[in-house]
Amino acid sequence: MNAARGVLVFNAGSSSLKFAAYRGDAVAPVLRGAIENIGAGARLRLREPAAEALGDTADLPADGSPAHLARWLMVRLRRRWGDFDVEAIGHRVVHGGDAFAEPTRLDAGTIDALARLVPLAPQHQPQSLAVVQAAMACWPDVPQVACFDTAFHRTMPRLAQIFALPRSLTDAGVVRYGFHGLSYAYVAGRLESLLGPRADGRVVVAHLGHGASLCAMRARRSVATTMGFTVMDGLMMARRCGAIDPGVLLYLLQEKGLDAERLADLLNERSGLLGVSGLSDDVRVLEASDDARAAEALELFAYRAACELATMVAALDGIDALVFTAGIGERSADMRRRICARLRWLGVALDPQANARHAARIGAPGSAVDVLVVPTDEEAVIAQAARAWGSG
Description:
Elements: E1 4-12, E2 17-23, E3 31-36, E4 43-47, H1 66-80, E5 84-93, E6 104-105, H2 108-115, H3 125-138, E7 144-148, H4 158-161, H5 167-171, H6 181-195, E8 202-208, E9 212-218, E10 221-225, H7 246-254, H8 260-269, H9 272-277, H10 283-287, H11 292-316, E11 321-325, H12 326-331, H13 333-341, H14 352-356, E12 370-373, H15 378-390
Parallel strand pairs: 1-5, 5-7, 8-11, 11-12
Antiparallel strand pairs: 1-2, 2-3, 3-4, 6-7, 8-9, 9-10
Helix pairs in contact: 1-3, 6-15, 11-13
């Protein structure tokens, strides 16, 4: 195989590291995979035809840290895939704060600035920066480009960004940033081909995965979102409770004796689907269960999603299309059914057969609202941004 220029993409999550490789200007990757379950017995999952290029992966350090696993992966990529000339490397970085609203080449200064945002995304930012450092060590002369989950939402109007807090806190950066922006950017790029002129209308996108949020779009730009200053706000999620009365937090601190560390663990790791069901944070497991607690957790997830979706509709003065994406949104026909059943008052109507087969269009004939399922691809968005730096 002749040498070809291309880009690598690393997408670090709280417990996973997704990666992909793209040759030239190809839209589809020649290699895609993920190291999953980091911190609890890591395992490697590979896809695409070139997966065998990694060779024997039996030496994966299952108990390794994110940085250790990233170095293992990168050394293997570099050794086993010698025909691939890396011209740029793109990274997902969850929080860009006020300063970063577009893809940015990383250097010591930008890394220091992003490290100062760790308190705003403690489960994600350190992992992203550890992967960046590993990539810089492995490819020291290759441009490293950060793409930010917060950037897509910088188009929100001021009223959608600020909290009802003293102005001094707002001026200090305590505002609604929003997340899942790379996913929303990908979906926004698909809307014209799916909706035609309606793509620039009033669209609500439901990114329902381990983390979950909604985004209200007009002209394919963010005007409101459910996540806020951190990834903990808004929808009920796999392990996060989402929006909660602040008085509950004061009660837990003052009356139940929780300190900040234990409170953070409760809200981030022991709530959501896992907390309500007491069984699992996985929708597939809960849907297969006949336990009443599983049923209640699923119904609460749908109820909260429908209620929060109504706030997005208010921000848009109506709705023309509803799009489901991410793991639950793409693969759980039952959860889509539950949510849409609560939105009949908006004119949302599902085609049960189309929904069951996960079709791209799942709205019933005559539905006042188009209902779509669009598989997201954050890596494609990052690859496109990285190419611009590699060819620049």
